Amino acid sequence: MNVITYRKGLKYQLTEKSTIKLSFCPPENIFTDYVSFLTDGTLINAKGYAWNGPSGLAVDDDHNMGPSLVHDSGYQLMRLGLLDLSFRDEFDREYHKLCELCNMSEVRAGLEYEAIHALGEQFAKPQKEKLYQSPLPDRVKK
């Protein structure tokens, strides 16, 4: 019998590559299968990248879906230990700026920023990823 291994908690998946130039950069290039963060500030999410979107009480909409992709990517790099936790503030502030650039009201952008900044630390700290397994038969009987 085969076994599949999977993650829980991801709601969205890119259907094509996403690239954005951030206002800050890492000290060295970071490459993973789905996220790259380059020393010129370019953040690249590969086709197929999955993330959980806006968290908490935030409503998932056009004002914060793109910003949540950027924010979740940065936090994932920190959780993996590939980016120092000092970048958490940068990603939180970038989320706020991106929400405003996506026409979110200043009040709502400020509230969402305050929420992720106050509650997000636990999601940025390096941790062993929890994976789940489930059986999958080798074949279907005729």
What does this structure look like?
The protein has 142 residues and is an alpha+beta fold. The chain has four helices and eight strands. Helix content is 33%, strand content 19%. Strands 3-6-5-4 form a four-stranded antiparallel β-sheet, covered by helices on one side. The protein has a two-stranded antiparallel sheet with strand order 1-8. The model has no long low-confidence stretch (mean pLDDT 94).
Task: Indicate the topology.
Layout: E1 2-6, E2 12-13, E3 18-21, E4 30-31, E5 35-37, E6 42-45, E7 50-51, H1 65-79, H2 88-101, H3 106-119, H4 121-124, E8 132-136
Antiparallel strand pairs: 1-8, 2-7, 3-6, 4-5, 5-6
Could you say which structural class the secondary elements and strand pairing correspond to? Answer: alpha+beta
Rg from Cα: 17 Å
Q: Give the helix tally.
A: 4
Q: Which residues form runs of ≥5 with pLDDT under 50?
A: none
Q: Please tell me what the overall shape is.
A: globular
- Percent strand equals 15-25%
Order of helices and strands: EEEEEEEHHHHE
Mean pLDDT: 94
Largest sheet: 4 strands, antiparallel
Task: Work out the number of β strands.
Answer: 8
Q: Give the helix level as a range of percent.
A: 25-40%
Distance between the termini: 17 Å
Main-sheet strand order equals: 3-6-5-4
Keywords:
8 strands; single chain; four-stranded antiparallel sheet; alpha+beta; globular; about 140 residues
In short:
With 142 residues, the chain is of the alpha+beta class. It has four helices and eight strands, in the order E-E-E-E-E-E-E-H-H-H-H-E.
